[in-house]
Design brief:
By secondary structure, the protein is α+β, with helices and mostly antiparallel strands. The protein is built from five helices and eight strands. The protein has helices at 2-23, 33-42, 95-110, 160-168, 200-218, and strands at residues 80-82, 86-88, 116-120, 128-132, 143-147, 154-157, 172-174, 191-194. The strands form two sheets. It has a six-stranded antiparallel sheet, covered by helices on one side. The chain has a two-stranded antiparallel ribbon with strand order 1-2. Helix 3 packs parallel to helix 5. Residues 141-213 form the Luciferase domain.
C-alpha cells in the first residue's frame, strides 16, 4: 500500500512533464511515449549552462569566425524549453515577423552565387531548411538553418568563435545536446538557437547570423 501511495505523485509528475513535452508541438522527435522516453534519457547528458561558449578546437581552421554583432539584443532572454523540439516559449516574434524571416531565408536560396537551396529540414522535419549545395562542415545534409513556425526562432550551426559572440550579445543560446562526442549524431557540436526577431531591426541582425552560418557550413 505504501508503495502505491508513493507512486501517485511520481506518476503525476511524469504526466505533467509528458503534457509539457506535447505542448511544444511537432519537432524532430515523434510525439509518442517512446519519443518522450528517448528525450528523458538524453536530458541526462544535456548542457548544464546553454550560455557558456564552446571552446575553439585546435584543429578548427580558421580559428576565428566572421561575426562582429555590434548591437546587443534588448531586454532579458526569452524562456526556452525542450530538447527536440527545442522551443522559445516567450517573446515570440509574431506571424508577420516569422513571414519576413522566411522571406529572408528564401532570398538566400534564390541567389545562384550563394550555392544554397531550400528543402525540408533534416533536423526539424516539420519546417523548411536552408542547405548548402557544397557543404564543408559536417551537418545533416549540409543544413545551414531552419526556422520554427510556432515561435519564430531558428536553429543553425556556427563557427565556435561566432557562437561565443551570439551568446555574449544575447541573441541566442546553445542547443542542450550541442556537446560533441556521441551526441553529434543528434545535432552538430556548434548548434544553437537564435531567438525570434521581433522587428525589422532584429531581423537584420538575424540575417547577419545566418550569413555566418552559411559561411561556416558552405565555405
Amino acid at each position: 500500500i505504501a508503495i502505491s501511495v508513493l507512486s501517485i505523485p511520481v506518476l503525476y509528475l511524469i504526466h505533467v512533464d509528458y503534457k509539457s513535452f506535447m505542448s511544444l508541438g511537432p519537432g524532430g522527435t515523434p510525439q509518442t511515449p517512446l519519443g518522450y522516453l528517448k528525450l528523458r534519457f538524453l536530458s541526462i547528458f544535456a548542457l548544464s549552462n546553454p550560455y557558456e561558449p564552446p571552446n575553439v578546437p585546435r584543429c578548427c581552421r580558421p580559428q576565428k569566425g566572421v561575426l562582429t554583432l555590434e548591437k546587443s539584443r534588448k531586454g532579458p532572454r526569452p524562456e526556452v524549453r525542450g530538447i527536440a523540439p527545442h522551443r522559445q516559449t516567450t517573446q515570440k516574434g509574431g506571424e508577420k515577423a516569422y513571414q519576413q524571416l522566411c522571406d529572408a531565408v528564401s532570398q538566400f536560396a534564390r541567389e545562384k552565387n550563394n550555392q544554397m537551396k531550400l528543402g525540408t529540414s533534416c533536423f526539424e522535419k516539420n519546417s523548411t531548411g536552408l542547405f548548402s549545395t557544397s557543404p564543408i562542415a559536417l551537418t545533416c545534409n549540409g543544413e545551414i538553418c531552419h526556422a520554427h513556425p510556432s515561435d519564430g526562432s531558428l536553429h543553425l550551426t556556427l563557427h565556435p568563435a561566432d557562437v561565443a559572440i551570439v551568446l555574449e550579445k544575447g541573441w541566442g543560446e546553445r542547443h542542450p545536446l550541442a556537446k560533441g562526442g556521441w551526441l553529434s549524431r543528434f545535432v552538430p557540436n556548434f548548434f544553437i538557437m537564435v531567438y525570434a526577431p521581433r522587428d525589422e531591426e532584429e531581423l537584420e541582425v538575424v540575417k547577419e547570423i545566418i550569413c555566418a552560418a552559411a559561411w561556416y557550413v558552405g565555405g
